[in-house]
Amino acid sequence: MEGILDRQKAKIKRAAKLMQILTKYGFEDFKAKLDNNNAEGSDNKHIQDTAFYERVRRAIEELGPTYIKFGQTLSTREDLFPIALIKEFKKLQDNVLPEEIDLIAHIESELQISVPDYFSEIDNTPIASASIAQTYKAKLQTGEQVILKVKRSGIKDIVHADLLLMKDIIELLTNYYSVVREINLKHVFDAFAKSLQEELSFINEQKNIQLFARNFRENPDIITMQVYPELSNDNLLCISFIDGVKINDKEAIIAQQQHPEDILDKCFNLYLKQMLEHGFFHADPHPGNIFVTPSGKIAFIDLGAVAKMSPNDKDLLEDFVVYFIYKDAQRLVNTLKKMALHVDIQDEKLLMRAFQEMLDIINTHSLEELDIRALFSKFSHLLNDNNIIMPEHVYLLVKGVVLMEGIGRELSPSINIVDKVKPYISKIATQRISPQKILEDNVGTLWEIRRLLHSAPQPFSSIIDRVNQGEFKVDVQHREFEKYRAQELRNNSLNRMLWVSSSLFIGGCIVTRLEQTSYWGISLLSWILFTLALLVFIILLLKKYKLNS
């Protein structure tokens, strides 16, 4: 009960601060702005809007970390807000003055250790200061250089109070203003709140770092962070120091005697691997979070915010990328509907035509000529116009690709993005038809067949015994109707078996030249498919003969 009261008091306190700042920046015209959102404007109105959006940004900056981060999240949603407001959101910076703390005393209090037993050096001047945490360089007694990430005092309570208040405000706006309902701001906020709460947890970040390192443990192109669990908790994180330069610092990369194009290739391939293979990817890959080491390895830092996908989500994403690259609008829309959390498409043919027009833009492949940001902005607009709400990982993926595109423009504008993705598409296709993948996908079905075969003899034997004893009765009603119905079911069953047999045979023909173990010039997978086709066909003939008899 005390915890609830404390949260409510904190929310009231933040609400008072909110009203004070809104009054300071003159938001008495906020209601008029919402009411007249769709009205046509003159040049004078455009100037007034620009001034209004600037005041929005300045108010957000003064409101603190939660609002700044929400504004940064909204800066990627060009489908929801006017371009002038998006430009102001993009100006929001998460750099704040460092908090004065006694670092050694703080470490000893948090970890219940004696600092000299573990650290030989600690720099008391933070190398970076953000709204949630600030970071320091240190050196362990074993000689390793490390980074200490220290959470700001009281930040958790501030963020939680802000989130409670923001949720109330957005629900109020959603109930009273159709424009807010139309942009699904509540869904955007829910996803943001979940992500921010995960970012507040250093325990969660530890797990992300460890999983990320396991995923890339045998990759020579990347260096991953190491976490020191014995020197970390939910308020303090000790990780290995990675020496390098920002991924977009072309001059520094060249000074390290490396080729920017090669570095970009590595970075892009590593990000594709995260998305399409691991289903676990960095949610904010801006240049400040990607380093290039003197040895030419790529390092992704700050794993507080990541996107995670289930195996089914990953399969659907693979389908989506395949259809996107090969410009198959119909299958793209069908996959989109499977991926979506909510769909309300008024005219599917119109949507399909719009996607086809968008996909035609991809005919120009190079980054120099292809505006990826505009392409994804159009994609987001199509989703919003058709009231399609996607899972959060899709929006994070779009954001990640746009950020990677920005890095690509700085390092090598002529890089061919489509050519970079196609090898992954070929790999996905090969994996999908591999015997191992087929077995993995159908192991549940095979188990059910085994269970059925195991349990079938006993019931069947019971039926025979009842027939022999004269106790088996058959109650037939609506004889003619049931006769035609049974005939229709039999015909459908035979047609399905014929279709399965034909599909297996055609599949065997398609993969006959697949590079793998072969016998007499025909791949092993083809032999398997031909054998299955023959078995189904034999069963079909026996079944048809039995029915005719």
Task: Give your account of this protein's structure.
It is a single chain. The protein is an alpha+beta fold. Among the domains are: 2-93 and 162-171, no CATH class; 250-432, no CATH class; 485-549. The protein contains 23 helices and twelve strands. It is globular. The model has no long low-confidence stretch (mean pLDDT 79).
- Rg, rounded, reads 30 Å
Number of strands: 12
User: What is the overall silhouette?
Assistant: globular
Structural class: alpha+beta
Terminus-to-terminus distance: 78 Å
The poorly predicted ranges are none
Transmembrane segments: 520-542
Keywords: Membrane, Transmembrane, Transmembrane helix, Ubiquinone
Protein name: Ubiquinone biosynthesis protein
Domain ABC1 atypical kinase-like: 92-334
List the helices and strands and how they pair.
Blueprint: H1 2-24, H2 30-35, H3 43-63, H4 65-74, H5 83-90, H6 103-111, H7 115-118, E1 119-122, E2 128-129, E3 133-140, E4 145-151, H8 155-176, H9 178-182, H10 185-200, H11 202-215, E5 236-240, E6 245-246, H12 250-255, H13 260-278, E7 280-282, E8 290-292, E9 298-300, E10 306-308, H14 311-325, H15 329-339, H16 348-360, H17 372-385, H18 392-411, H19 417-432, H20 435-455, H21 457-468, H22 479-510, E11 518-519, E12 522-523, H23 524-548
Antiparallel strand pairs: 1-3, 2-3, 3-4, 4-5, 6-8, 7-10, 8-9, 11-12
Helix pairs in contact: 1-8, 3-4, 3-5, 4-10, 8-10, 13-18, 14-15, 14-19, 15-16, 16-17, 22-23
